[in-house]
Every structure is written in structure tokens, then in C-alpha cells.
Amino acid sequence: MPGDDVETRIRLAMFRHLDQVSAKHPDGVPSDVINSFTFDGAPMRLVVQPGIRKPAILSAALTIRTTYTRPGFDAPYEDQFGGDGSLRYKWRGTDPAHPDNRALREAMVRRLPLAYFAPVTRGVYEAIYPVYLVEEDAGSHEFAVDLSEYSHWAGDGDEVLLERRYTRRLTKQRLHQVMFRPRVLRAYESRCALCRLAHAPLLDAAHILPDHHEHGDPVVPNGLAMCKIHHAAYDANILGVRPDRVVEIREDILAEIDGPMLKHGLQEMHGSVIFLPRSRRDHPDRDRLEQRYEQFRSAA
Predict the structure, then answer these.
(1) CATH of the structural domain 6-186, one choice from 1.10.3470, 1.10.890, 2.30.280, 2.60.40
(2) Whole-prediction pTM value?
(3) 152: helix, coil or strand?
(4) What is the spatial distance between Cα 194 and Cα 280, in angstroms, rounded to a whole number?
(5) Distance CA 3, CA 97 (A)
(6) What is the pLDDT of residues 154-185, one digit of tens each?
């Protein structure tokens, strides 16, 4: 893409905008904040109904989004993962000549990067970018979307095709990992489960069981919202969380004498009960807590 091409300039400006708003909203970016984007002084909406955005000055789609669906309800568009791990993004309707579908096809043919807005909750999204449309299935009325971080390939040689298949297997993994943090933070109302610190940029989504564990799925019941100090202490087995959600601090740490961070940030957490999400389905899983607590006890 030429450096002075409007397609390039708008996409680069959009990515810079998304960098800024995503950093300020680690628990998901509200649609009105996403839509505060301007280009050359003019406002340009990025999140629109029904989900495919192609500004009039562009020839190809700029953004796509998946509609938020409440748990237990049917989604209006069945975006889902294919066997190769790529996201399947549905056409607008069934007419291949619909302007939105032509805009998606143009982005695919020209290998233009887009932003994908994955729903955290109603009106709140996690921006994932750049993403690429890599295939079209006219029979199923859908495009394959590669969300992997290494998807900007060129050419069609055997080596490139192998890389393409590999990176597309990372798509589902990447989406689930990317969505883990905002969903955990939002479940815990952007507060540390231990000290109640309510500054989202200072919070992490701590895995109870790690990625490599057979039950280490990136789902909210396998997560705890923690400030960065408590997350580091949890990973280092300085603190543990019992299955009954009571915090324990390792005995040698309790015996130490140091400054106020040790005293108030760690030692005073001993025996406290963690803060829980409002929804029971988001509560930390007791079996996972028990397995992780046994690891803490072994280290202690």
C-alpha cells in the first residue's frame, strides 16, 4: 500500500486511535469512545450497525464487529470458528453483490488490514487489530478472518502456505486470550479481588491455573482480577487463595519486617476474603482454586 494512499493513512490513524483508547480502557472500550475517531479533522464512526464499516471515501471495508449476545440467547449472526482455527465472519445477508460484501471482498483481495471489534458486553468491545480476511466461502456466505499476530504474508509459495495454516491455528487461541483480560476485569468491576484497587490500568487478569494446564482455559471462572503487585505475588507463590476464597500469605513473608508495602500490601491480606463478581457464573471455580492452592502449599 503506498504511503500516501488514503486507505493506508486512514488505517494507520485508526490503529493509533485504537492503541490510545484501548490503553485507557483495559476492561473493554465503549462504542462511543471508539467512535470518537477523527481523520483529517472529520469524525469517522468505526462501530456501526449491522457490523461492517466502509466509509464512503474508501473502496474496502475498514472494520468488522460481532454483535453482543446475552448468555442463553441466539446470536443474529453466527460468527464462529472453522476447523482451521480462523474466525468465520458472515456476509451481510445472502447477496454476494451487497455493497458490504463487496467491501469485505475488496479488503480480502487487496490484503488490507482491518480492525475487529469483539464484544465484551453490550456496547463495549475489545479492539483486535490488524486482522485480515483470507478466504471467502460463497456456499456458507462467510469470510475467514485471520486474527493471528503474524498474518501479513505475501505470495503463495509452499512455505507461505504452511505459515498461513499455522498462524490461522493461532487465531482462536489469540482471540480467547485477548478477551480474557477485559472479561475478567469487567466481571470484577475493575477492582482487585484482594485489595479492591479500582484503577483498571493497574489491574491484570490472573490465571488460577496456567495456560499449559489441561484446565487452564482463558475463561472468567479461571481468572481473578488482581493489581500488579498481588498478581506477581500470586504467581510467585507468596500468596495463595484457598478454595473457600480466603487469602493466605506465606509464613516466611508474614515473619519479615520491612516497609509499608509489605505490611499493608501483603501481610494484612492474610485471612481476608476475596471480592467476588456479582454473577455466580463468573465466580472463581472451586476445583481450580483447590488445585492452585495445593501448588501454593507445596511451594510454601
Answers:
(1) 2.30.280
(2) 0.77
(3) coil
(4) 18
(5) 30
(6) 344 444 333 444 444 455 566 777 889 999 99
